[in-house]
Design brief:
Blueprint lengths: L1 H29 L3 E5 L2 H11 L3 E5 L14 H5 L6 E5 L8 H5 L7 E5 L8 H18 L4 H28 L6 E5 L3 H7 L2 E6 L7 H14 L3 E5 L8 H7 L3 E4 L12 H16 L3
Parallel strand pairs: 1-2, 1-3, 3-4, 5-6, 5-7, 7-8
Helix pairs in contact: 2-5, 5-6, 6-10, 8-9
């Protein structure tokens, strides 16, 4: 009887020990998230959607700031020190040079420039970006390849549904064919929305009196109904043009998180559509 109890006791102890080892292993696994640093919130939002709890994401450039004119600080570059992946837009190569990356002294870091062209706020381009980033994550972390690919399919399906929803709103509001003057950074999104982009302009410092005069003349001749600025490159850039034309003006964002409560692509693109419709309606 004593022997039987002793065997049971030791058997139970072995099972408990195995469970503790298993639980400890699970704890260690959680600590092995894929560390990803991103160049903009556009990339960060997609990585979070696809990677969920399997990734640890740090973004460098704040969403309300212009990524082409952002002044990198040593603390920004230091974010790359412990990362496995650095995902940036292809056009950010001049900012994140090879010498800059080398200064971090992280031999494990893989830099991946994303060559998805177009305005990522437009649903068709966003789908391309999701597919590209899912492929990068799957290659960098093959153990979770199926997880990333499954999530990417779900995210893509959600983009398709969101596009249908927004297209209905835009159609109901009569946005198709509306003539606009806009920041060159908003051109791609506005064309997707159905607007007729009559002309574009650059940053505020590029808007000389002569350029403004030409845009106003162009806008009057075409019957422009709206001027659209870009939050990141100059939220008030087109104010003078709109005033001269006597038409409303609206500022849209090219990045998730640019406006409060828009940390995801879905919420950011919906905010843009709402702002566009409200501006045309005089609200």
């Amino acid at each position: 009887m004593v022997v039987s109890f002793g065997r049971r006791f030791w058997g139970l102890a072995v099972v408990l020990a195995a469970l503790l080892v298993l639980l400890a292993g699970c704890g260690k696994q959680e600590g092995k998230q894929l560390k990803v640093v991103t160049g903009t919130s556009l990339i960060a939002a997609i990585v979070r959607d696809i990677g969920q709890d399997r990734v640890d994401v740090t973004n460098i450039i704040p969403p309300a700031q212009c990524p082409g004119h952002f002044d990198l600080k040593p603390s920004d570059v230091e974010k790359l020190a412990n990362a496995r992946l650095f995902l940036r837009h292809e056009w950010q190569g001049k900012m994140f040079t090879e010498d800059l990356i080398a200064s971090v002294h992280n031999p494990e870091l893989k830099v991946v420039p994303l060559a998805v062209a177009g305005n990522w706020m437009a649903p068709p381009v966003q789908k391309q970006a999701v597919e590209a980033i899912a492929g990068v994550l799957a290659q960098a972390d093959p153990a979770n390849k199926e997880f990333y690919e499954q999530n990417a399919r779900q995210v893509t399906a959600a983009i398709v549904e969101k596009e249908k929803e927004l297209r209905r709103k835009l159609d109901d509001a009569g946005v198709a064919g509306v003539k606009v003057l806009c920041s060159e950074m908003q051109q791609g999104f506005l064309k997707w929305a159905g607007c007729d982009v009559v002309g574009t302009y650059g940053r505020p410092e590029e808007l000389t009196p002569q350029v403004i005069r030409q845009l106003v003349e162009q806008g009057r001749a075409a019957g422009v109904r709206l001027v659209v600025d870009n939050l990141q490159s100059g939220p008030e850039a087109g104010a003078g043009i709109a005033r001269e034309l006597g038409v409303p003006r609206v500022t849209l964002s090219n990045f998730p998180g640019g406006f409060p409560g828009t940390d995801s692509w879905s919420s950011a693109v919906e905010k843009n559509v709402t702002l566009l419709i409200d501006a045309l309606a005089g609200r």
